[in-house]
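testing teh design pipeline on a random one, pls ignore if ur not involved
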């Protein structure tokens, strides 16, 4: 009589553990240490060439040594920090791309609409995925049908006559 009770207790424990809701992805910190990604180092201090042309200090404003990851990334990729900070017109090299992407109009609330639709989709797709015995990637499961097969797309482009960059074999 003791064996059926223990089997029932273990089954019940697994059933209750499978009902927890911790989101689509199981991202857990590896330890109790500090988060090294939340610390942003500042730029080194430099002496200006001429003190008479320094901007007036602004309370709560930015500093030359404050990190600016977006501008740093633009500069690292070959862009211009001045063009990033200035509200300039669209460059002529990108005008065709902007025209083509906005030919049907650009609604102002696109991000909110997409976020709402995505939340509804995940809720609908994730109804039965909460029952589990082991940790799995729920994000992968929910969006599995929408994922592209890179190898198949590469082969289809080659068959259509497009030049494609070399890609690693599909089995690696």
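output:
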């Amino acid at each position: 009589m003791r064996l059926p009770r223990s089997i029932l207790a273990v089954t019940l424990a697994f059933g209750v553990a499978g009902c927890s809701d911790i989101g689509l992805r199981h991202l857990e910190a590896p330890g109790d240490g500090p988060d090294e990604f939340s610390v942003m180092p500042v730029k080194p201090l430099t002496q200006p060439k001429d003190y008479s042309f320094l901007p007036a200090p602004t309370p709560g404003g930015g500093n030359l040594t404050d990190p600016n990851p977006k501008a740093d990334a633009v500069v690292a990729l070959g862009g211009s920090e001045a063009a990033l900070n200035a509200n300039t017109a669209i460059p002529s090299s990108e005008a065709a791309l902007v025209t083509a992407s906005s030919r049907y109009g650009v609604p102002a609330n696109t991000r909110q609409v997409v976020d709402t639709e995505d939340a509804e989709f995940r809720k609908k797709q994730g109804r039965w995925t909460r029952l589990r015995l082991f940790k799995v990637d729920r994000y992968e499961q929910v969006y599995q049908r929408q994922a592209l097969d890179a190898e198949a797309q590469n082969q289809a482009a080659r068959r259509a006559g497009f030049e494609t960059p070399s890609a690693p074999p599909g089995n690696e």
